[in-house]
């Protein structure tokens, strides 16, 4: 079994930029409306978040008031910037002191270059909902161009995201960030592809169970049920997480879900103790059927749609059950076991 892997993440940015709000939405099950009652972060708030089998996200939410910032770059800089896996710097798109924000970003890069030169750098251009739709791309690109040029001076490559707490963009950004920290994400991808091929699924998505961030997904683009919406996974994350919150308020435990529409069926079930899997299947219009991981088929010679639907449901759930041990093993892998 692998030892516990800690990933230190710095969440930084000016006070009021939205750092704590996004942290609370992603990791503490707050709704966007709930964040209105959050106060300013005092100094550094530490969150230790178990993510998958052996990985712990050690999130440092650094208060953005000037007094705290001064300390980060002077008396606390060794403590703050050493052994950092990733910096997530949040820019308030409506900041009146953008130049100062960029100067603070530069100070972060300078200290990371000294103490954690291998750190990954992410910039979240936040509160994009406050920008006129027609100008959002231009505003985002202009800021990112400046940040890319600045990061290159310290041999860092910055990855940017345009975000707001009011849509799925926040889930898309954090899913992408967290996936860069998972050492065996390619192994998840490979086995998820095998699962999708055997099940003849249109799409299969693996979510982290608590945050509902997307860990991996595979898509059959030739499928008649394929959807080209590039934010569909994050929309699902948002919807399911809100549904789970509703269940909690009713003191009900959310375990699994199955939805059958006119052209496709979605199955959501537990894969491991830390993950959930969603399988999307096109509703069949002929006698062809799915195959389970043991080679059994749901083909019905009489063409009974209700029989085929029930059989497909049983096979998908059986496939998930069979695959469960393999995905549990992947979670516990050492990086050198890949």
TrEMBL record:
The entry's cellular-component GO terms read:
fungal-type vacuole membrane; Gtr1-Gtr2 GTPase complex; nucleus
**Alphabetical GO biological process terms:** cellular response to starvation; negative regulation of autophagy; positive regulation of TORC1 signaling
Presence of keyword Signal: no
Q: Does the keyword Chaperone apply?
A: no
> Which InterPro entries does the entry mention?
Gtr1_RagA, P-loop_NTPase, RagA/B
Q: Which UniProt keywords apply?
A: GTP-binding, Nucleotide-binding
Q: Which GO terms describe its molecular function?
A: GTP binding; GTPase activity
- Identify the domain of life: Eukaryota
Function field: GTPase involved in activation of the TORC1 signaling pathway, which promotes growth and represses autophagy in nutrient-rich conditions.
Task: Give the family this protein belongs to, as stated in its UniProt record.
Answer: Belongs to the GTR/RAG GTP-binding protein family.
The protein's assembly and partners: Component of the GSE complex.
Name of the protein described by the UniProt record: GTP-binding protein
Q: Which organism is it from?
A: Lipomyces tetrasporus
Lineage of producing organism: Eukaryota, Fungi, Dikarya, Ascomycota, Saccharomycotina
